[in-house]
Amino acid sequence: MINKNDQLDQVSEKIVEIKSRKKKIDNTQKQIRGKQISIAMRISIELIIAIIIGAILGWYIDKWLDTKPIFFIIFLILGIVSGIKTAIASSRQLYEDNYNDH
Amino acid sequence: MEPEAAKLIGAGLATIALAGAGIGIGTIFGNYLSGALRNPSAAPGQFPNLLLGFALAEATGLFGLVIALILLFVV
Amino acid sequence: MAEKSGAPDPMHQFEIVELVEFKLFDLNLSFTNSSLFMVFSVALIILLTLFTFNGRGTVPTRLQSIAELSYEFVGKMVRDNVGDEGQRYFPFIFCLFMFVLFCNMLGMIPYTFTVTSHIIVTFALAIVIFFGVTVIGFVMHGISFLKFFVPSGVPKALLPLLVVIEVISYLTRPVSLSVRLFANMMAGHTMLKVFGFFVAGMFFSGNLFIAPLGVAPLLFITAFTGLEILVAFLQAYVFAILTCIYLNDAIHMH
Q: What predicted TM-score, i.e. pTM, was given to this entire model?
């Protein structure tokens, strides 16, 4: 009897261990798809809003320091670059669920 | 021409950029569909690429929309 | 839907009407139709979660299973995207998701007011989330939370430029969160209204050729309303899941 209890304990420990290993990969296909669609919507809007925020920041710093239009151009370019960087980083997030499955 | 009228005409012309967005999105989805119909088992693997292409084409179209809004409300 | 001088006005549905005036030293704290629909949304959520339970029965009623499904849905979303340390933020994410979902869905009923179609409402939600997540990051990691803005493996000369770029892209998060929800809601409702004006104009144009063709925009409105209901749910889901992703970034620092 004690032997069987030990075996049962071992088996339940193993089950708990395997379950905790599998926890991250437990998404259904639908959930992954939903997450990917939300990341895609985020990419398109963040690209544009990064440029707009760069432009607004540059415009207001120009108004404050009275130097037209140097800061506007600088921050516009910085906004474009940061938008593209965010898009690339978000697109990397798009692929990570795919590479976990295949 | 008064500036008010010029603003409205300019904003209207700027939305022509959305035609490019429509063409781009249609092209991306059309190519994905024709590829998925030829090789259905490879289709889920290409789904992130589809979403990425859609997001970037949409972003390009939204640029034109932003210019239209700036013309209407800021300038 | 009174028209001014006969011209169709699709923006009239977004007007804020003060129902109970309440001004306090220059601050206008009146109870508006926006507040009324927020109260409706919260009341519906409370009704759904608190008063649908079947007592001691093991078989849930239909409404109870809707409440349990939404709890499971948000629970799974938080567990998968934030991890186990994020369980303490589950009540906030649940309230956020249910509030945005119910506000969006209430707007699909005719003659109601869509709360989330105003940029100030969505921006208030997004800025609270932004400040909350930043404060959580600082509390959990101390001052080394600033390392979040320094990407690894970068030559030292480019570092100042890259830090500014990372800060700008971090600042776009609340703006993009709010603009996405606001733009989708306002654009959807405006388009429905414009096509409604087409239908009314075509039916009452008095021209015997155009009048029957008024059915075409009507069919389009029907199909588009279905799409709008899907968009309402999807936008609430996107809002909640992006909040979970930003929370995960703050807690786990990449």
A: 0.81
Identify whether A56 is part of a domain. yes
**A65 has pLDDT over 60:** yes
For residue A57, the enclosing domain spans: 28-101
Residue located via tokens 């440029």: A51
Domain ranges of chain B: 3-73
The domain tally of chain A equals: 1
Cβ <8 Å between A38 and C241: yes
DSSP run (H or E) holding C31: strand C31-32
> Which of residues 6 through 25 in chain A touch B, CB cutoff 8 A?
none
Query: Chain B interface, mutation test: which of A48, A59, A82, most B Cβ atoms within 10 Å?
Result: A48
Max CA separation in chain C (angstroms): 75
Is residue A21 domain-resident?
no
**Contacts of residue C154 in chain A, CB cutoff 8 Å?**
none
Of C168, C169, C237, the CB nearest to A34: C237
Place of tokens 């295949």: A102
Would you write out chain B's pLDDT as a tens digit for each of its 75 residues? 888 899 999 999 998 988 999 999 999 999 999 999 999 998 888 888 898 899 889 888 888 888 888 888 877
Of A37, A41, A46, the CB nearest to C172: A46
Select from A83, A96, A97, A95 the least CA-distant residue to A42.
A83
Domain spanning B3-73: which CATH class is it, in words?
mainly alpha
